[in-house]
User: What shape does this take?
Amino acid sequence: MPVRPETIERFSSLSNVAISQGALLSRHTRFGIGGPADVLLEISEEASFIQAIGISKSSGAAYTVIGGGTNLIVSDAGFAGIVLRFTGAAIASNGMVIGAQAGAELQALVDHSIASGLRGIETMTGIPGSVGAAVYGNAGAYGHSMHESVRSVRFFDGTVIRTIGNAECEFRYRESVFKQHKDWIIFSTELVLDRGVSEELRKTADEIFQVRLAKYPADMKCAGSIFKNLVLAELAETVQRQVPAQVIREGKVPSAYFLEQVGAKGVRNGGIRVADYHANLIYNEGGGTAAELREIIHDLKSRVRARFGLELEEEVQYVGFAANGAV
Assistant: This one.
């Protein structure tokens, strides 16, 4: 059902809401891919966001919620309906506790923690995306993940605003309870960090950032690693025996190892390419489409499945596709 003019009029009555009709979602994804949304709402106030959800539901039009677009693949046709983004981005600290709204950039949170002399998330420097997405996917790097620092998460469950503690977030490797309840909207989180020395934390972060830049140049249109790494203990014994000990890191096997074995490096499909130096890095070389991107993801998954009997799982999310992007 198309978004009716009276629905847009209702949205316009809300406070702290920016409304765009026909906005290209490619401008809101790291891949630079994606067609238009009928209506894009960017909302910085929790109360208005909740009201906008209610209006969207009652309108009969399709709707979806996105974050910063870092791990997003949007259909070439775009999204026929309403796309909502929460953009509240306040960050504040009190002692060793930092509170951050979900729309804040993760890098801004990392920088704030370093400036405040708080240790725990400095290794996440250079990871693109929002704080909400980092909680949602339990983002991490260099041996540390969000779950180590999150004290609580405040979110809208579709009926009321709730706050849950770390245990209730059910964090696992690149997983959280929010991935199981995609209708829950994260509004903010509180982190508890350790005391550190700002200069030392900044040095660590800068060194990591240089390593990350070498892998993922700032102008590269990519989502970082496409596939999740695999937990060694969860693999079949026949597969475990094929994995050299030197590639195992903290009990995990990089997806890149399996991808390398099936010749993924340098694979190209139209404007989409797998990096020559990293088998788990797919990027838009220029003019790439979502269809080409999905095809190359499907091809790589099929190769690994045929060789190892493994089902690689994407870290990216899909918008505007049937069955959540299943190919």
